[in-house]
Specification:
Rossmann fold; 43% helix; 20% strand; globular
Length: 254
C-alpha cells in the first residue's frame, strides 16, 4: 500500500461504517457541511465565484464545490490525499489540485470567495498561523466554513484510552474495521477557536455543534444506542453541556 493510502481508505470507510454511531457521527458532519456550502455559495455576490478546500482528504466535498463554484482548488500537504482525488480532474475541468502548506501558503492572496477547512486544524500545531493564512487567501467579504473536534468531548477523551497498548487490539476487534490514530495534536475548545478566528481577522456569523458519543453504548447498544445519542444531542445542543458534542462548526467572514 502506498504511504498515506491507509489514511485515505480509512476516511472513505467512515461514511459506510458498520457501527451505527460511527457512521452517523461522520455522515451528520458531512451533511451539515454540504448544506452550509450550498447556503453560503448562493449568498456570494461575485459570479463566477472561486473556492478552495484546505485539506480535502478523501475528496468527498470536492464534487459539491465543483457543482457550486466556477473555479475550485484543493490544497493539501499530504500527496496521498491529492493523488486519491486526481480522478476527479477528468470530470471537473475547473478543478485544480496542488501541494501547499496552509501555515505558509504559496497560493495567491485574495483569490477565493469561499474556503472550506473541515477536520484539518486539529492536525496543525500552529492553527493561529493557518487561520491567518486562510484570511489572507480570501477576498474581502469572503467566507470560511470551518469544523474541528471539541477538546473535551467524550469521543476525543475515549480515543486517548482506545490507543493505549493492549486496548487498541480490543477496539479493532469490536468494530471489525480500520481504526487508526486520528493524529489530533491541537484540540481546542470553542472559546479558543473563536479567539483564534478573531485574531486572524474573521467575523463569526454562525456556530453549530453535532455528535453525541457515549462510550460502550455506541459499541454495544448499536441502533438503540444511536437513538439515545441522537436524543441527547438534541437536548444539550445550545446549552451549557454542548461541549460534550464532538464537532464544532463555524462560518466566518473575512
Amino acid at each position: 500500500m502506498k504511504p498515506g493510502q491507509e489514511l485515505v481508505d480509512l476516511q472513505e470507510t467512515l461514511y459506510t461504517s458498520s457501527n451505527p454511531t460511527r457512521r452517523w457521527l461522520h455522515c451528520s458532519r458531512r451533511d451539515w457541511i454540504v448544506d452550509a456550502l450550498r447556503r453560503h455559495a448562493s449568498t456570494l455576490t461575485e459570479k463566477p465565484a472561486t473556492a478552495l478546500e484546505v485539506g480535502p482528504g478523501s475528496g468527498i466535498y470536492l464534487p459539491v464545490l465543483c457543482e457550486l463554484f466556477a473555479d475550485v482548488s484543493g490544497a493539501d500537504i499530504e500527496t496521498a490525499y491529492l493523488d486519491s482525488a486526481r480522478p476527479l480532474l477528468e470530470k471537473y475541468t475547473h478543478l485544480s489540485l496542488q501541494v501547499d502548506d496552509i501555515t505558509n501558503s504559496k497560493l495567491p492572496p485574495h483569490s477565493f470567495d469561499l474556503i472550506l477547512c473541515t477536520e484539518v486544524i486539529e492536525h496543525i500545531a500552529d492553527s493561529t498561523r493557518a487561520l491567518s493564512e486562510m484570511h489572507k487567501l480570501l477576498k474581502p467579504g469572503g467566507v470560511l466554513i470551518l469544523s474541528t473536534p471539541q477538546k473535551y468531548s467524550p469521543l476525543e477523551l475515549a480515543a486517548k484510552v482506545a490507543f493505549l497498548p493492549g486496548v487498541i487490539q480490543l477496539v479493532r476487534l469490536i468494530y471489525g474495521e480500520a481504526i487508526l490514530d486520528s493524529g489530533h495534536i491541537n484540540l481546542m475548545t470553542e472559546t479558543e477557536v473563536m479567539r483564534q478566528l478573531g485574531h486572524a481577522g474573521f467575523s463569526i456569523e454562525e456556530r453549530h455543534k453535532t455528535g453525541m458519543y457515549l462510550p460502550l453504548v455506541a459499541e454495544f447498544a448499536r441502533n438503540a444506542g444511536l437513538q439515545i445519542e441522537q436524543y441527547l444531542e438534541q437536548k444539550i445542543r445550545g446549552g451549557n453541556l454542548d461541549w460534550l458534542l464532538w464537532t464544532q462548526y463555524f462560518v466566518a467572514r473575512a
